Amino acid sequence: MNTGFDVERVRKDFPVLSRELPGGRPLVYLDSGNSAQKPTQVIDVMREHLAVHYANVGRAMHVLGSESTEAYEAARDKIAAFVGAPSRDEIVFTKNASEALNLVAYAFGNPMNTDPRFRIEPGDEIVISEMEHHSNIVPWQLLAQRTGVTLRWFSVTDEGRLDLSNLDELVTERTKIVSIAHQSNVLGTVNPVAQVLARARQVGALTMLDGSQSVPHRPVDVAALGVDFLAFTGHKAVGPSGIGVLWARGELLDAMPPFLGGGEMIEAVWMDRSTYAPAPHKFEAGTPPIVEAVGLGAAVDYLSGIGMEAIAEHERELTGYALEALGEIPGLRVIGPQTLEERGGTVSFTLEGIHPHDVGQILDDNFGVAVRVGHHCARPLHLRFGIPATTRASFYLYNTPAEIDALVRGLHHVQKVFA
């Protein structure tokens, strides 16, 4: 394994990992693709802010108000640096990645937006993919229904890769935006975004990446990617729930209309009209998720302190170990890439003749192994493979080969139960 990565030291930072479940079973948490556990460093920062620094931000002139605002805006600085944003003002806090994706979809065809890049009408097209999370499908379906434009998508190969064989036919001069997952939450596939983004730029289309599964697990630099929008969420990145991030190029944020109206997002208000604050505050109406933003700032500090390259390499080794071990279980079918090439630490699979819900229940009840079962908010992808659901094991910086061994033992037991 990665000799420069001390997983046992990392595990000590996560209190829940030392928990004993009923019956004395140790917790084996293999569900970080759903939501990651939180280190003491994040918990303590949030607790301290609530205990001795909390006040509303951007409104109060007293000491607590100043301290709270400073901590909130410092988190914005940290996150901008974490994703390579050229400016802190390009970081918009949302409540999750879903809201960030909806915010961008709302800007298209909006009569308040006169920028031609966001003008959309029947005959125009939106391009997504068949492997998307529902959060990167439904907002674009709603936009298509609202405006009469056409929704198109990349298909997925039998190996779980984006099918780019018709890239030039799919992304054309009619395309207004291409929005795809950077990394699949089901397949683990890391998509060849450079090729897709290059084609989109060639035809003048805007581009968006759902980074919910990539930003917590590998180095991501928006400037190097050359993308226009990036969404991700805090709770998958050892941060709290209730906080997400939209990064967008500053000129695009300037053109986009407010998503919500209320306090803080205004410049001036009269009874018959309002003017709006510049980005990012234009998109942060009302009291924001203050403590959650501070917690996400602490989370990116924690991840940066370990090093995203080291985390990615640790997960790569775990994934290789898991693919080999799972491949030896008869009747087990991995849905997605079978090799480590362009692949992250998420492995979804089926067990012949056994429903994933039964698999998950027995793993939890008998072995303390926490996995996710279902269609993982990616039903179209499961329909593509002709299956109703999968069992998904997802790995993170605190997981070990011994935990994968526990998963394998549990799956053998599941097969014995249903034999």
TrEMBL record:
Pfam families: Aminotran_5
GO biological process, one term: cysteine metabolic process
Keyword Transferase: yes
Record-level Gene Ontology MF annotations: cysteine desulfurase activity; pyridoxal phosphate binding
UniProt entry tagged with the keyword Transferase: yes
Cofactor(s) needed by this chain: pyridoxal 5'-phosphate
Top-level taxon in the UniProt lineage: Bacteria
Occurrences of domain Aminotransferase class V (ranges): 28-407
Purpose: Catalyzes the removal of elemental sulfur and selenium atoms from L-cysteine, L-cystine, L-selenocysteine, and L-selenocystine to produce L-alanine.
Family under the similarity heading: Belongs to the class-V pyridoxal-phosphate-dependent aminotransferase family. Csd subfamily.
PANTHER family (alphabetical): CYSTEINE DESULFURASE, CYSTEINE DESULFURASE 1, CHLOROPLASTIC
Name of protein: Cysteine desulfurase
Gene from which this protein is expressed: csd
